[in-house]
Write a structure and sequence with these properties.
Blueprint lengths: L3 H10 L3 H8 L3 H9 L7 H11 L20 H11 L5 H12 L2
Length: 104
């Protein structure tokens, strides 16, 4: 499984491991281990929680050659992600999100 995709999506969203932990409910230590490669086969529920926050599915973590390239997120993707996770964001995170979106 392409767990490096987690780091890729996390970076695109501008999240730290701590923020991803808080939003997903997955302990930061677990996220650190997954992203460093120490944990190579995380629990399905852990991956589901991370995928939910990153606005993707478990299929998006699949690194097989048959995968198609990922397109840019649509307005609907962003709307869904913010609507689902917005209440968990701090004021600072919301302001960073607004700033990031205004730069697009």
């Amino acid at each position: 499984m392409g767990l490096e995709k987690i780091a890729e999506y996390k970076k695109k969203m501008g999240l730290t491991n701590e923020e991803l932990s808080r939003l997903s409910g997955v302990p930061k230590g677990t996220i650190d281990k997954i992203l460093s490669g120490v944990t190579k086969d995380p629990k399905l529920e852990t991956l589901k929680a991370i995928a939910r926050v990153l606005g993707c599915s478990l299929d998006d973590f699949d690194d097989t050659e048959n995968r198609t390239t990922h397109s840019e997120p649509t307005y609907e993707d962003l709307h869904y992600l913010i609507a689902r996770n917005g209440k968990n964001l701090s004021t600072e995170e919301k302001m960073n999100l607004i700033k990031m979106l205004s730069e697009l």
